[in-house]
Design a protein that fits this description.
The structure holds two protein chains of two kinds. By secondary structure, chain A is α/β, with parallel strands linked by helices. Chain A folds into three domains: 137 residues, 3-Layer(aba) Sandwich (Rossmann fold); 67 residues, no CATH class; 38 residues, no CATH class. The longest helix of chain A is centred in the middle third of the chain and has 14 residues. By secondary structure, chain B is mostly helical. Classes of the chains: A alpha/beta, B mainly alpha.
Chain lengths: 259, 288
Amino acid sequence: MNLVELRQVVVGYHHEPLLPAIDLALAPGAFLGVVGPNGSGKTTIIRTMLGLNQPLSGSIVFPARRRPRFGYVPQRASVDLTFPLTAFEVTLMGRYGLIGPGRQPKARDHERARTALTDVGCDDLSGRPFHALSGGQRQRVLVARALASEPEILVLDEPTTGMDLPSERAMLDLVSSFTSRQIAVVMVSHQLGAVSDYALELALVPGPGQHVEIGSRKEILTSARLTRIYGRPIAVRSVDGHAVIFVEHECDTGPVEKV
Amino acid sequence: MEPAAGFFESWFLWRDPLAVAIIAAALCAFVGVYIVMKRIVFVSAALSQMSGVGVAIAFYLASVAGVDPHHAPLYLNPLWYALGLAAAGAALFSLNLNRRRLAGETVVGLGYLIAAASVIMILNSPRVGQEAHEVNDLLYGNAVAVPPEQLKIMSGTAILIGLVHGIFGKEFVFTTYDAEMARTLGVRTRSWNLLLFLTFAAAISVSTRAIGALPVFAFMVIPPAAGLLLGQRLWQVFAISVVVAVLGATLGYYASWHWSLPTGASMVVVTALFLLPGIARLRMKGGS
């Protein structure tokens, strides 16, 4: 049974539609990559799914007749660094929705938060101030906070922005591993090449006013489709079973720039 | 007679005013941590003015009804009007106005300006003219002389707000730190934000009547800033903020007595001195 279904959902701001109607379903263990150029509306789609924005029309259906637990990892830049909180305190906040108002975290909540930090390899950072962590460590702690909420759907918004290649791959390996626990993962990224190695399904968001194309990696990652959407010649090659995407410069004969 | 000896011998004169000043300072410093961390310091100035409008309206209505404002019935009590107007302002400011066309700080500025102008207008009407001086005292108390019931009202307000924060502190911190994440977890951030702002309104309107607008604004900003400069953990920031406010109010009151200085201003200046250790620490660390 699907966890959530978007049926003919139109997303937008201030009553202005941004994209045509979207149909989308997420099952346990799915890994959906939401990709597309900057400013195309990727974040608006996930914000609507999370309930942070209201759909302009259409409906968001929860087939199990209850809202699934969402774990949200916002863009790193949106987190306030002036708060004097430790990595553990930030992670523990993931439990607050389950604890309920007016109640204090119990030993079980502390244990879950510690486990989440261990899961992301940050157990040794528990007592460190959040603002003093490196960008990659902060991102991992934010993933731990989302995990502490025992999510059925984990939603990540550009989690690898600003990371070097090894850190980016480590983060994607980590996120990908959650699908084996039947957690559905939705990851927004403008880094098409990185996401395409991990996501089983892709939602390609071409830009305002254009239809979102959803399908398997193989269906979505075609040279013709990407060339049309990005407005530049793009080649998709297969190297050792991995899709490798290149932007071809028009004056050149071969691929020179990896996306 | 030495001023210090005179001070301690005259304890019956300053006991209640100092107690009120200390409670107001501690309360403002506590809720001020949220105000500083939310980066909305001028909300306290705007809410203070809005509570002033409430007091002015109560006096105006009393004069229209031909009732002595000092012995007005409950429905014309200035405190209720002050709380009501401040609560209305708090409800307005608690909305996430930054998403709309006007930035949140613009709305706060508009609230301040309209309220300040309204107070002046009402107090200068012929109906309230004779009471204007007393209304000013009610609006912006001077922390030197307080009526006996003021200590009870101030203590009761502090206990009530302390209880609300003690029970719902987790929700207030979460919605202040990351409201979007909180919403995705099903936390009703608008309701919690509204409740948090209502505690601001109550603290500001009651404290302003007791010690004046300037000290209230100062205690909302300076001690939390000192706390943030020195504290490594959130609980330390709250603790340092309250301790700095209590010391600033006490020493400022004493300095005012000793050197015959204006009490409110004296408390503000002394409290500001507590920023120095934090600034020195920052400079030693090479931070900004």
